């Protein structure tokens, strides 16, 4: 056992810079277990104080090491070793991390230590939603919720609300998204004030409109109807003279948005439903897929006109919206046969008079962009000799791009995306499987080949920009 004080029994002495001998360095064990010695009446030099502090630090390290070894031998955690654990904590104080401590890799669940006897909590690391998507499909976008705190400071509250609704698919089809976007842009224009020294035609688009568009695109990829409307809106803004008063320009934009909603959405719905209902005759058997609002309005209008016909609804098993359409039609007095999946294609499609399908977009080469499963129905109907009629507004037409597959323009379903598989929201139907397209254009009764309509769109959109 070491001596209880500093004395002659010490094996070494401390030497100052002047060569004089001072107090011997303390024994490590004595500095921990024995009481403090009496104060040295002589004042220590700075060199002696430095040597003393260094010796005490070495003593603490040695004591902590001995305590840790003793605890490990007894099989007890170091946290329960009493004063030795306290000394160990004191030895680690002032350091960022203890020696040998490993940092867990990113994405690994980390167990936190128990507090007051409670179960240890788990730090849950959010998994990347796209981590399971193969590299060859990495170009396909997917909707995601963007926290409002991460949005650009210039994004209008109305646009924030629309973006959240799109990300959660509360606004699902292209026309509902388009209408909500235009109404939100209307509020943006109403609250806009041109900064001093600027003009609306030069400042509004890059500094006000573009942040709104970028936020909506981050929430969910922009549909073709939104892209067409935004292109027309920007063209309208650019046509204003730099000296046009702000109030006059804002009033012109608000009137243009109202005109676009009335002409390309509300009135287009009415005309398409009327023209499509004229193609239904008594005794016909109509086959449709899923639930599209234009098809629903068409069937209800034909029934209101007194026509008697049957409807077969083939549903998407992943979505199940066709069941709601079957309930609405049956409530209106229309005989309905419902199939929860595409298993009824072979037996029901050959007996169909017409097959009505709704579209999300039509490309310049006439191909149809529609919910997944539409292409299967169209191909089966064409092979069976039934007419395939697509109902689509002209605002959904893309005059510049073409599509020959379902991988160029598509979206990944965020609700059905796992590490094992994922689902695409849309598919592509080639023009040869489409008999005709009914739009709001009064040409040939509204039923024309897709490519024939493209030539009329240029004449139709000129008055919207003017």
From TrEMBL:
Compositional bias annotation for Basic and acidic residues: 53-68
Record's subcellular location: Cytoplasm, Cytosol
Keyword terms of this UniProt record: Cytoplasm, Initiation factor, Protein biosynthesis
Region listing for Disordered, in residue ranges: 1-115
Source domain of life: Eukaryota
SUPFAM superfamilies membership: NagB/RpiA/CoA transferase-like
Compositional bias of kind Low complexity: 29-41, 69-91
A GO term for molecular function: translation initiation factor activity
One Gene Ontology cellular component annotation held by this UniProt entry: cytosol
Pfam families: IF-2B (PF01008)
KW Cytoplasm (keyword) present: yes
Assembly with partners or alone: Component of the translation initiation factor 2B (eIF2B) complex which is a heterodecamer of two sets of five different subunits: alpha, beta, gamma, delta and epsilon. Subunits alpha, beta and delta comprise a regulatory subcomplex and subunits epsilon and gamma comprise a catalytic subcomplex. Within the complex, the hexameric regulatory complex resides at the center, with the two heterodimeric catalytic subcomplexes bound on opposite sides.
Family recorded in the similarity comment: Belongs to the eIF-2B alpha/beta/delta subunits family.
Stated name of the protein: Translation initiation factor eIF2B subunit delta
Species annotation: Chaetomium thermophilum (strain DSM 1495 / CBS 144.50 / IMI 039719) (Thermochaetoides thermophila)
Taxonomy of the source species: Eukaryota, Fungi, Dikarya, Ascomycota, Pezizomycotina
């Amino acid at each position: 056992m070491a001596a209880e004080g500093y004395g002659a029994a010490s094996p070494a002495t401390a030497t100052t810079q002047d060569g004089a001998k001072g107090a011997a360095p303390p024994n490590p064990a004595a500095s921990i277990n024995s009481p403090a010695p009496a104060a040295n009446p002589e004042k220590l030099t700075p060199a002696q104080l430095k040597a003393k502090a260094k010796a005490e630090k070495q003593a603490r390290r040695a004591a902590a090491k001995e305590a840790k070894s003793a605890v490990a031998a007894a099989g007890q955690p170091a946290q329960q070793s009493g004063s030795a654990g306290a000394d160990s904590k004191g030895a680690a104080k002032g350091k960022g991390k203890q020696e040998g401590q490993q940092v867990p890799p990113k994405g690994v669940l980390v167990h936190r230590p128990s507090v007051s006897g409670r179960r240890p909590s788990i730090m849950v690391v959010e998994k990347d939603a796209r981590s399971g998507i193969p590299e060859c499909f990495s170009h396909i976008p997917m909707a995601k919720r963007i926290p409002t705190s991460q949005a650009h400071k210039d994004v209008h509250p109305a646009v924030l609300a629309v973006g959240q609704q799109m990300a959660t698919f509360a606004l699902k089809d292209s026309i509902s998204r388009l209408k909500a976007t235009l109404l939100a842009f209307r509020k943006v224009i109403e609250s806009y004030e041109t900064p001093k020294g600027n003009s609306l035609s030069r400042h509004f688009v890059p500094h006000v409109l573009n942040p709104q568009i970028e936020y909506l695109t981050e929430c969910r990829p922009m549909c073709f109807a939104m892209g067409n409307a935004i292109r027309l809106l920007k063209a309208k803004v650019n046509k204003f003279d730099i000296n046009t008063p702000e109030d006059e320009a804002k009033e012109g934009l608000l009137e243009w948005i109202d005109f676009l909603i009335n002409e390309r959405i509300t009135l287009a719905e009415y005309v398409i439903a009327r023209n499509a209902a004229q193609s239904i005759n008594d005794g016909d058997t109509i086959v449709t897929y899923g639930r599209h609002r234009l098809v629903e309005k068409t069937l209800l209008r034909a029934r209101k006109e007194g026509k008697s016909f049957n409807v077969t609804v083939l549903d998407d098993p992943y979505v199940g919206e066709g069941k709601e359409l079957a309930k609405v039609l049956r409530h209106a007095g229309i005989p309905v046969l419902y199939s929860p999946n595409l298993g009824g294609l072979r037996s029901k499609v050959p007996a169909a008079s017409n097959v009505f399908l709704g579209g999300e977009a039509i490309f310049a080469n006439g191909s149809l962009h529609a919910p997944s499963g539409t292409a299967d129905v169209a191909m089966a109907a064409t092979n069976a000799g039934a007419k395939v009629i697509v109902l689509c507004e002209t605002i959904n037409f893309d005059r510049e791009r073409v599509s020959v597959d379902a991988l160029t323009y598509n979206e990944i379903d965020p609700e059905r995306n796992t590490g094992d598989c994922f689902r695409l929201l849309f598919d592509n139907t080639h023009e040869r499987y489409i008999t005709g397209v009914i739009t709001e254009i009064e040409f040939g009764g509204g039923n024309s080949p897709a490519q024939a309509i493209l030539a009329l769109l240029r004449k139709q959109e000129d008055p919207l920009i003017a």
